[in-house]
Design brief:
CATH topology: Rossmann fold
Helix content: 40-55%
Order of helices and strands: EHEHEHEHEHHEHHE
Number of helices: 8
Largest sheet: 7 strands, parallel
Length: 256
């Protein structure tokens, strides 16, 4: 079996409704590169509005749904609707996530649990449900967002529980890549360095930007477009022989 992506295909992008987030740019970039896109976000109205905006400048179908990625029943309902109403579901970009700037000694157990729940368990819930669709088509592309924070042990904005969850995503992705490869499904990670988005605690000031780029080889803070380019490539037909990879998009902030 060739395991080739169909020409008319759909990708889910989670967390794509934030005006200054990576997910929105990923959804836009995928739509511009031939994917039909299903946006899933906690805010249904914002997801639908974002989808309408992106669809207006795309030749493909872009739609929005509201769902909490930590709720298996809600995820199942939304994915089932996408399967019924859109072309074959063979792509998934796991972008939804939350930050955690709390110092470890001040960290509460509820915050720890919430970080793992959203940044790791939620990715599993969405991925497992979408993979069932991919297996039926014998092809798929999965890309999830980790972080330089997982590699360096924090040091950007978010701290310990965020780093732990994002490190867990690397092991999770490599394991599903091993199990799902026989079905023509690739699974990869993109690990951004400092990116100017709201998950960094709001727009970065020039002072904060200077603090980040001091350790980098490329002397600027990254943009959502930098990350989206990597994700779109890993989800493209040309990336079918790349799996279980962790691609750093960090301007040389960390090598590993």
């Amino acid at each position: 079996m060739s395991h080739e992506l169909p020409h008319n295909r759909t990708a889910i992008v989670t967390g794509a409704a934030s005006p200054r987030g990576i997910g929105r740019v990923v959804a836009d970039d995928l739509a511009r590169n031939g994917w039909n896109v299903a946006i899933i976000d906690l805010d249904a109205n914002q997801a639908e509005a974002t989808a309408r905006e992106l669809a207006a400048r795309s030749s493909t179908d872009v739609r929005g749904w509201g769902a909490d990625i930590t709720d298996p029943d809600a995820v199942d309902r939304v994915v089932a609707d996408i399967e019924k109403t859109m072309p074959p579901l063979v792509g998934l970009a796991n972008i939804a996530g939350i930050s955690s700037p709390t110092p470890y000694l001040d960290l509460t157990l509820p915050e720890w649990i919430r970080q793992i729940e959203v940044n790791l368990t939620g990715v599993h819930i969405v991925t497992q449900r979408v993979v069932r669709s991919m297996v039926s088509h014998e092809v798929g592309r999965i890309v999830s967002i980790s972080s330089i924070s997982a590699q360096r042990g924090g040091g950007t904005f978010s701290k310990t529980p965020y780093s732990a969850a994002k490190a867990g995503l690397v092991g999770f992705t490599r394991s599903i890549a091993r199990e799902l490869g026989e079905h023509g499904i690739t699974a990869n990670i993109v690990s951004p360095g400092p990116i100017d988005t709201d998950i960094m605690g709001g727009p970065l000031t020039e002072e904060r930007k200077a603090g980040f780029v001091g350790e980098q080889l490329i002397k600027r803070v990254g943009t959502p477009e930098d990350v989206a380019a990597a994700i779109t490539f890993l989800m493209s037909p040309r990336a079918g022989f790349i799996t279980a990879e962790n691609l750093n998009v960090n301007g040389g902030h960390y090598m590993g």
